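Risk register update: the risk that structure generation would not scale has been downgraded. Supporting records follow, first protein first.
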Amino acid sequence: MISPHPDYLRIATEEAFAPKEMFDIYRKILAGPDPDPGFVSLLGFYMTSKSDRAQHIMRCLSDLDTLRLQHMDDTGIDRQIIALTSPGVQIMDTDTAVSFAKIANDELAAAVRRHPTRFSGMVAIAPQNPHEAAKEIERGVQQLGLTGVIINSHTHGEYLSDPKFWEIFEAAEANDTPIYLHPNTPPRNMIQPFLDCGLDGAIFGFGVETGLHALRIITAGVFDRFPKLQMVIGHMGEALPFWSYRLDYMHQATVKSDRYPTIRALKKKPSDYLRENFYITNSGMAWEPAIRFTQETLGAERVLYAMDYPYQYSADEVVALDGMPMSAENKKRFFQTNAEKVFKLK
């Protein structure tokens, strides 16, 4: 068991859960005539595999009490910010997705009420119906006391860069709550080369797909339309901070060349939106060089700690990050105060 740290709280900001009833819906989808191949690869595996890893994940996802709290204590985590695991309701048909998002949010809010000093939660929504999604953001924030919105990247291969989804951004900005853009497996028209070599999931495919999604949102002009909107992306920003220079250069060059009708001038550089409209968590990336680079590039006030529980669960990683050679102020920002600010924990 890792003891509490005397200088800061350890707040983990990308931690997953799943109501048991959701797996019943998933089984029906998997038994259907043509289930999404990425969904089959991801949940089809975890729900059927007898491996220790799969069994651990399935057991932990559905627990919002004793087991989760014990694992937090064992790794020294003071608070989890919990969200519906990928792909959440976004793999479902529209009506089921809208209704089950409410069920999942009610269950998570009840757990937060049971453990108010240990848990916070994000609002799950069904982008399939943007109007209902906007209403659920308002209910989740104002009535349930959840903080943040979880969107598990694409929805049936559609991306939030399409203006038909922008009512969701409007609702998040109006409720002053961030959107956490969490990975999903690549969509049907993108996944096969990843599946061919076993790279479709967290090892690589997640980051490629979600980094693409975030960049589509930037280049579509979402933040020019909603300048106060804040988003969070994990896994050290799905590599986007490391591409900042090239993104800026090639976006400008593409605009000047008038090559694509979808790439038009923005009010700022892509890297400016990363610095001003995104928070980055290190979920699954307990690696000091990447953390420090992102702090230096985007600002120490923009980088947060996350464990990625239960998919990644290691006390050794917490110990290693505690030991980073970093100023006391920036380390407290990383583990505690940045999370308190963006998720409004105080």
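Supporting record for the second protein:
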Amino acid sequence: MTLLKELGYLALATRIRTLGDTMLADGLQIYAGLGLNFQPRWFSVFYLLQEHHELPVTEVASRIGLSHPAIIKIIESMEEAGLIESGRNSRDARKRMITLSAKGEALIPELQPVWKALEEELKQLFADLNIDILGVLESMERMIQEKPISKRVQERYRRNFNLNIAFRPYSKELAPAFKSLNEEWLTEYFTIEDEDRRMLDQPDQILEEGGTIVFACLGDETVGTFALMALSDGVFELAKMAVTRRHRNRGIGQLMLKKALEEAQTLGARSLILHTSAKLEAANHIYGKFGFVEDRLTAQPMKYLRPSRRFVLDLVRSS
């Protein structure tokens, strides 16, 4: 068994490409064995032109589903072989038109029986395998178009990764992590202000005033944190939520925000507020997904010098 077979689904794309290359190489053998100067990669363009006689290059690319540069390469090689001719559209000089040459037209009756035999043999091959290969391909293309494999893998990776995240309450041992995690993003985007320093240097005060601090841990590594600060009866502020740079874009932020809402309800919170910045695009996207809306009406001075926006979430209504 070759390595590609041992790897199974991990090598699927490589095996499909290799199979495609093998089929194209077989196609060359078919045409060469019959004494025909034709290449499999020309087929789609040639077939389209025999059906429509003359087409602009852009339309050929669109109908076949290849990029414009890729079609240009195919057309250039077909022109070199004398199978097609090209020129400018008489009504729109910007459009390059292509058509089969006399040599290409003469080749049609020789190619058609080859294509018929090829189609029949491929049908038989997949019938013997009991596979509706065209149906499978259409289904795969549709599903991948609806949600690319890249997105599917990222989502699954995050789900699997997040299974290993454990939440821990504040402790003296974790206090340095609360400070370092927040200093990392604050210095990345802003300047650490007096209000930031007060909270980071005195995290115990958050607990003493009725709030809480929670840490997200991956094994022995502390990768994220957030604080809930009690402001008034039933109103809490979500503050100092941070994910270390090395582990961003893995869904930890959403996981922490979900945990923050659970903790807030445990503390009896009726609403949550937070202060954010337009610079924090990823964080703001998550806040919106969880129902936070910008509060433009509350006339309170912002606690930070950096440009800030105030968001609020009604926990009673959203529960």
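The chain has two domains: 36-146, 165-318. On this basis the risk owner (M.S.) recommends closing the item.
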